[in-house]
Amino acid sequence: MVNEKRLIESFMELVKIDSISREERNLADFLIEKLEDLGLEVIVDQAGEKVKSNSGNIIARLRGNIKKATLIMFSAHMDTVVPGKNIKPICDGEKIVSSGKTILGADDKAAIAALLEVLHIIKENNISCGDIEILFTICEEIGLKGAKNLDISELKSQIGFVLDAGGRAGKIITTAPSQNSLEIIIHGKSAHAGANPEEGINAIQVAGFALSRMKLGRIDEETTANIGVISGGNATNIVPDKVTLKGEVRSRDGGKLEKCTEQIKKITEDTAQEFKAKAEVKVNEEYHCYNLSPDDQVVKIAIKAVKDIGLQPELCPSGGGSDANVFNKKGFPSVVLSVGMEKVHTVDEYILVKNLKNTAEYVLSIIKTVISGENLDE
Ligand SMILES: [Zn+2]
Predict the structure, then answer these.
(1) Is the pLDDT of residue 378 over 80?
(2) CA–CA dist 80, 75 (Å, integer)
(3) Confidence label for 375 from pLDDT (cuts 50, 70 and 90)
(4) Average pLDDT over residues 58-80
């Protein structure tokens, strides 16, 4: 039922509309018009003002004719990473790539194109369904800011499907980590390096000792830690009085996240004390982990809908966060689905037409599964 030609054209049109984070407005205007043409009620929330974007999140509602069906939400994010301006997609019939100078933007416009295609199919075939909400968020790529500033009570749905993972359609992300970001500032004491170095405390050296004592990289199967940025010092003849380190800890287990973060903090503070320096450690929770079970309704529906279109479901963990982390933390059960995008956040990003099409078919299958009322355990 998917119109492949229309789907490809729609995808190509979407990626040509620039929408890097905080500049989603042109895309939002385009989508609002499309959604209204397709018969949805559309509102734009106030999140944009809070996160300094020129657009808010779009919340659209399709009124279905089956009143007792479970209300479901599909979401995708409108923003892209850089280099994401003036994208020139190329399609050879099987694969869609960028010109090689920019990303493609299949992350996450493959999801948007698939959702629009499904709304077209529902309208032209008069398909019966329950109420469906479509959420297009802003600023996902710069810290899930659109989702974090979404008033979840605006959504009437009971469960959500976040279309925003790489890999073929059929992959279902049931668990994702928490992430803490770290900013560590070590304060030493400056002095002339040649005349009176004994009066100084070398902040860079203290940082070096602290770093050598930290356990970084893969901590265990569910936990990773990294210090990725270091800056400090002014001149070779000055004992440096300040150095800043930036890093992160991720874990799919909240307790391990705490423990690993605490260890880094303690090592830094103890090392600073040893050298009579001072350490400031700022920890910020970027997003919170979630763990869904195969018995959760949202996962059951996702699995059955994959099987119904002849694909193999695959439950997998994610190494990163998405809007679903925020929704789950707000008490709204959501699962992340793969949409076929590959090598995202690089200029080699691509998507196979087959996977784009499967994603649209998968969304349609989810809608049918929800209204079929069949036993989900089959
Ligand atoms: Zn994405």
Answers:
(1) no
(2) 15
(3) low
(4) 95
Q: Which domain holds residue 220?
A: 178-287
Find out whether 38 and 92 touch, Cβ atoms under 8 Å: no
Ligand 1 centre and the CA of 295: distance in Å? 26
Through-space distance between the first and last CA atoms of the chain, rounded to whole angstroms: 25
* pLDDT above 80 (res 79): yes
Can you say how many angstroms the Cα of residue 294 is from the centroid of all Cα atoms in its chain? 22
* Average pLDDT over every residue of 254-258: 94
300-326 pLDDT per residue, tens = 999 999 999 999 999 999 988 999 999
- Pick from 95, 116, 83: nearest CA to 14: 116
Q: Do 150 and 224 have their domain in common?
A: no
CA of 302 to the centre of ligand 1 (A): 19
Q: What is the pTM of this model?
A: 0.89
- Average pLDDT of the residues in 281-286: 95
Residue 61 burial by Cβ neighbours in a 10 Å radius (0-12, 13-18, 19+): buried
For the chain, what is the domain count? 2
Active-site residue, selected from the candidate residues 140, 164, 222, 323: 140
CA of 235 to the centre of ligand 1 (A): 41
221 CA distance to ligand 1 middle (Å): 24
Write down the catalytic residue from 23, 45, 79, 222. 79
CA–CA separation, 339 and 263 (whole Å): 37
Q: Output the CA torsion 111→113→118→122 (10° steps).
A: 140
Do residues 322 and 164 lie in contact, with contact meaning Cβ atoms separated by under 8 Å?
Answer: yes
Catalytic, 377? Answer no
From the list 66, 71, 76, the residue with the least C-alpha distance to 133 is 71
How much distance in Å is there from the Cα of 333 to the middle of ligand 1?
19
CATH at residue 168: 3.40.630.10
Residue the block writes with tokens 């734009």: 44
Q: How far is CA 342 from the centre of its chain?
A: 15
CATH number where 215 lies: 3.30.70.360
Whether 183 is catalytic = no
Give residue 139's region: left, alpha or beta (phi > 0; psi -120 to 50). Answer: left
